[in-house]
Design brief:
This protein has 308 residues and is of the alpha/beta class. The protein is built from 13 helices and eight strands.
Length: 308
């Protein structure tokens, strides 16, 4: 597994790969298939390490898996001569629409024209993928899209959306300030993260990405992007869904506060032939914390079938 910062659209971005590194192209891999994961919010790639390890075990050896973080959700380490654009350039670099363009530019820059792209989206990453498909230069290269716990409609009206808009967004400044205070006392921060993960049954491997999330600047970008999601993600894009139905596979949770079962039923009513499944196992929206291996195997087997 390779972890590094890459810079495009003037923003240093954290990328993780299992298989050949993105700057090597696909010539080193033999075949022309590549799996690209667009995360949810927070877009911190290290949350997905267990998922991509599990996924990779089900794929041909030569098929790489790349996780592309969201711009501004991981800061460059101090030993790298990289600086992030200032927050005054929010709309250009960190906004929801900027994140969409950021992913399109990644594909256009690093994925060969003749490659077969298998896109995996999680949460808001699913909304991004549906919008990426509107770019014909990319959609013609996309073999299949796998959309996990998709937040593609009416986010603000969901149980979690209401909690975010009525509570979290109103105390966002306080949360960021508290994280700044904790960053001044690293020992206390690590201790509190350890207690939190222990109480919630979260594996210790997630301590580092949680610490990245609690970086004040990262958290500020995460919360501000989430606020935009509530305002932008409203009506389901049935035109795009119908147009690219043959490239789409959905996985809805049966206990998801961001994409309730009603959304799954509505999808199947309007698009009865859509490949969409309702989870039978009780996996949470934040599956990467506890059920990353199981979902990796499910999606990996589907991709393997499409490659074969």
């Amino acid at each position: 597994m390779i972890r590094a910062m890459l810079k495009w659209n003037s923003v240093p971005t954290y990328v993780i790969t299992e298989g050949c590194w993105v700057e090597e192209g696909l010539s080193m891999c033999g075949k022309k298939d590549v799996v690209i994961i667009i995360p949810g919010n927070p877009g911190i790639p290290e949350f997905y390490e267990g998922f991509i390890k599990s996924l990779k075990t089900r794929l041909p050896t030569e098929t790489p898996v790349w996780v592309v973080g969201h711009a501004g959700h991981v800061q460059p380490p101090n030993n790298l001569l990289m600086t992030m654009p200032s927050d005054s350039n929010w709309n250009e670099h960190y906004s929801l629409m900027a994140q969409l363009e950021h992913k399109k530019e990644f594909i256009q820059k690093y994925v060969p024209e003749d490659a077969k792209v298998h896109l995996i989206g999680h949460s808001i990453g699913c909304w991004m993928i549906l919008n990426i498909l509107k770019d014909n230069s990319i959609s013609k290269r996309v073999a299949q899209c796998y959309l996990l716990f998709p937040t593609i409609e009416h986010m603000a009206t969901t149980r979690n959306g209401l909690f975010f808009t009525q509570v979290v967004s109103r105390i966002a400044f306080i949360l960021v300030f508290l994280c700044w205070l904790l960053s001044c006392i690293p020992v206390l921060q690590i201790f509190l993260i350890s207690i939190y993960t222990l109480l919630h049954g979260i594996p210790a491997k997630h301590k580092k990405p949680i610490q990245q999330l609690l970086n004040p600047r990262n958290l500020k970008n995460v919360l501000r992007m989430a606020d935009e999601e509530m305002k932008v993600v409203k009506e389901r894009d049935d035109i795009t869904l119908a147009k690219y139905a043959d490239k789409l596979w959905f996985y809805y949770g049966n206990c998801d506060g961001w994409a309730p079962v009603k959304f799954y039923k509505d999808m199947k009513t309007v698009h009865p032939n859509m490949k969409a499944e309702l989870c039978k196992h009780g996996y949470y929206h934040s599956f990467v914390l506890q059920h990353d291996k199981e979902l990796g195997q499910i999606v990996g087997d589907l991709i393997n079938e499409s490659i074969s």
